[in-house]
Amino acid sequence: MGFFDKKVGRAGAVATGLAMAWLLATPASAQNDKMTPIAIPAQPNAITLNTGPLPGGTNAESWHSQYGSVFARNVTVATLTPFLPDPAKATGVAVIVAPGGGFRTLSMENEGWDVAKALADKGVAAFVLKYRLNQTPADMPGFEASMKAMFSGVARAPRMDPQSAVKALEPQLADSRAAFALIRSRAAEWHVDPDRIGMVGFSAGAMLTLTTTLAVEDAKPAFIGLIYGSLAPATVPADAPPMFFALAADDPLFGNSGFGLIESWRAAKRPVEFHLYEQGGHGFGMYKKKTTSTGWFDAYASWMAMHGYMSKK
């Protein structure tokens, strides 16, 4: 589809630490951790993106419940679901929400719909991106076994060279790019300012958000939020957007990996805000917890307001 030609640059910015993003976004608590298959929920407002079916995707999309939330897997056709604010308080700002799940599943409720609803309540048009995923076994036992195998190999996962890093995310980057294009093409209909579209992602969704920012030249998010993503350093361009980053210090995946990405943004003299919460684990999202990490969304909204993204121009 011609995506990885002149449209893609700065690939080196996403190479380091990509392997660590192939992880499930899960809450710190193991309560209700049993995966239970469920029927695919109705998604009447979901808009099919024009990126086509996943090449080689043979297993059909399926969903399951876990941690009191719902997850999608084997997504072979990408969609974008709008959550539009009350016109009376719409700011004209939009945010694409990218759930996490190790590029094998998507935390559609905790890191998707619930985030979008909270943004819409504040006057921000939110769009949940259900991007295409790597295929997993169709049956639940096979899927669970594949996830255990993935986790067992995380510590020895090799680093990818820059071109391989971008290539590995080719379907997801195409979906992200298509989401930005769709929103801009219907900006008047959705009362969105095409120059004020941001993106927020969780875990693997944070990696997708960062890669979209640094490697897809025609996406150009106005601002980005990375929630418990990799902190590996990156090559940051002079026009990089403002970045908000939230992470728990006890995150088992990224809590002890240094602060390279924050330092990279600061070295490039680009705006960055970093929240390191004492507790919260990985995958806290919109779950209500007793830890201060629960306050990340209010901090993110305040940060957006500071940059003028919670008010009309």
Tell me what you see in this structure.
- By secondary structure, the protein is α/β, with parallel strands linked by helices.
- It has one domain (11-306): Rossmann fold (3-Layer(aba) Sandwich), CATH 3.40.50.1820.
- It is built from 8 helices and 12 strands.
- An 8-stranded mixed beta sheet has the order 2-5-8-6-9-10-11-12, sandwiched between helices.
- Helix 7 links the parallel strand 11 and strand 12.
- Helix 4 crosses helix 6.
- The chain is globular.
Gist?
This protein is an alpha/beta fold and 313 residues long. It contains eight helices and twelve strands.
Write the topology of this structure.
Blueprint: E1 36-38, E2 47-48, E3 62-66, E4 69-73, E5 79-83, E6 94-98, E7 105-106, H1 109-121, E8 125-130, H2 140-152, H3 162-168, H4 170-185, H5 187-190, E9 197-202, H6 204-215, E10 224-227, E11 243-248, H7 260-267, E12 272-277, H8 296-306
Parallel strand pairs: 6-8, 6-9, 9-10, 10-11, 11-12
Antiparallel strand pairs: 1-3, 2-5, 3-4, 4-7, 5-8
The number of domains is 1
Poorly predicted runs: 1-13
CATH superfamily name? Alpha/Beta hydrolase fold, catalytic domain
CATH top level?
Alpha Beta
Indicate the proportion of strand residues: 15-25%
Shape: globular
Number of helices: 8
Task: Measure the end-to-end span.
Answer: 37 Å
Number of strands: 12
- What share of the residues lie within helices? 25-40%
Helices and strands, in order, run as EEEEEEEHEHHHHEHEEHEH
Corresponding CATH architecture? 3-Layer(aba) Sandwich
Q: Taking strands numbered 1, 2, ... along the chain, how are they ordered across the largest sheet?
A: 2-5-8-6-9-10-11-12
By helix and strand content, what is the structural category?
alpha/beta
Radius of gyration: 18 Å
Within the CATH hierarchy, at the fold level, what is the topology?
Answer: Rossmann fold
Quote the average pLDDT.
Answer: 89
Q: Largest sheet at a glance?
A: 8 strands, mixed
